[in-house]
Amino acid sequence: MTATNEFDVVLADVEIGRTEAERYARDGKRLHLGNCTLEGADLSSLELKGWHFDRCRLGRARFDGSVLEQARFTACRAAFASFAGANLSEAVITGGDFSNASFRRSSLAHASLSQCKLMGADLQEAKSWGLSLDEVVLALAKLAKVSFRKLTLRRIDFSEAQLVGCDFREAVFDECSLRDAAMVDCRFERADLRGADLGGIRLADAKAFRGAVISKAQAAVLVRELGLDVV
Questions:
Q1: What is the pLDDT of residue 140?
Q2: Distance in angstroms (rounded) separating the CA atoms of residues 33 and 56
Q3: Based on the domain organization, do 129 and 63 belong to the same domain?
Q4: Which of 15, 57, 127, 186 is 20 to 30 A from 209 in CA distance terms?
């Protein structure tokens, strides 16, 4: 165990459970965890502000209701982890696999997610004001009532995602995919969809694009998807 100017405690290559995490949290310590194992650990309702999880194994760990403001997750393996109701404001997730993780009703305000995988993750009703997304796989994810308004979305894969009631107004799509996504009650007014794959769109979903900007090529794709012949 060591300390740096940025962190009170630096731990590497150890297994961390509820008892250890709770002790450090109670003492207000900021931890850097390198290549540590927290698989299945219950870290719910703990004050973990500013902690850095670097290359950690977090599969099925529970952070429900925890304070993770300004926390960092770098190249972590966190499949089926739960962050339900957690405060992840200004958190940074870079790389790693969070497939099937739950962020339901969490706060992701001004958080940054880049080059990571959240396939099948549950982000329903997550607070996303100021969220930054770059190269994120959200295929098959549940994203009901999430706002992406005015965001620039770069290389985001929403294919087959459940985008029920999402707000994409004035969003810009850059090399994104909405292929076969369910977009019930979504809003796309003044969104720039020219950088999005719109394959597999159904007639009921096409109505959501009213007021959005698309290219001529995309318009042709939509016409074909809707079973219409242009002569």
A1: 98
A2: 7
A3: yes
A4: 127
Same domain, 130 and 154: no
Asked whether residue 204 carries a pLDDT value surpassing 70, the answer given is: no
Shared-domain flag, residues 90 and 44 = yes
**Domain-ending residue, one of 141, 169, 201:** 141
**Which run of H or of E encompasses 11?**
strand 9-12
Decide: 149 and 130 in contact? Cβ < 8 Å: no
User: Strand 31-34 relative to strand 152-157: parallel, antiparallel, unpaired?
Assistant: unpaired
Decide if 169 contacts 153 (C-beta within 8 A): no
Task: Note the pLDDT of residue 212.
Answer: 92
Contact 38, 18 (CB under 8 A): no
pLDDT of residue 49: 97
In this prediction, residue 226 carries a pLDDT of 67
The total domain count for the chain is 2
83 and 156 fall within a common domain:
no
pLDDT at 42 over 90: yes
- Position 37, amino acid: T
Q: By CB neighbour count within 10 A (0-12 exposed, 13-18 middle, 19+ buried), where does 10 fall? A: middle
* 150-192 pLDDT per residue, tens: 999 999 999 999 999 999 999 999 999 999 999 889 999 999 9
Exposure pattern of 69-108 as b/e (b: 16+ CB <10 Å)? bbbbbbbbebbbbbbbbbbbbbbbbbebbbbbbbbbbbbb
